[in-house]
Amino acid sequence: QVQLAESGGALVQPGGSLRLSCAASGYALDYYAIGWFRQAPGKEREGISCISSSGSITYYADSVKGRFTISRDNAKKTVYLQMVSLKPEDTAVYYCAFRPVVCKERADEYGYWGQGTQVTVSS
Fold this sequence. Notes:
By secondary structure, the chain is mainly β. It is built from no helices and eleven strands. Strands 2, 4, 5, 6, 9, 10 and 11 form a seven-stranded mixed beta sheet that branches. It has a four-stranded antiparallel beta sheet with strand order 1-3-8-7, with no helix packed on it. The model has no long low-confidence stretch (mean pLDDT 95).
C-alpha cells in the first residue's frame, strides 16, 4: 500500500527557512512526478511546485518562484521542498502528492496524497 508522509513543518518567523520532506513507503518513486500543494484556512488547495519523474522538469507557482526549490532523491524515496524568505502568506498546510511521470496543474490529477504538515509564518 502506497503511503506518503510529509514532515518538516513548523512555526517560523518571516524571512526564515524550512525544508519539507515527503517520504514514500510501499512504492518506488522513480516513475512518478511529485507535486507540492498547500491549503490555507478558507482557501482552495493551491499547487505550488512539481518535479517530473526524471527530475529534469520542475514547476513553480508565481507565488513561490525564486524562494522555493523542489528536489528528489529516488534512492531515499523522498522529495524535498526547500523554502526560504518565508512570508506570512505562506502559512498553510502543505501536502505532497504523486502521479505518473509528468506534472499536472490540477490537484485531482494526483492519485496519492500525504496527510499534510503545518507551516506557520509569524512573528
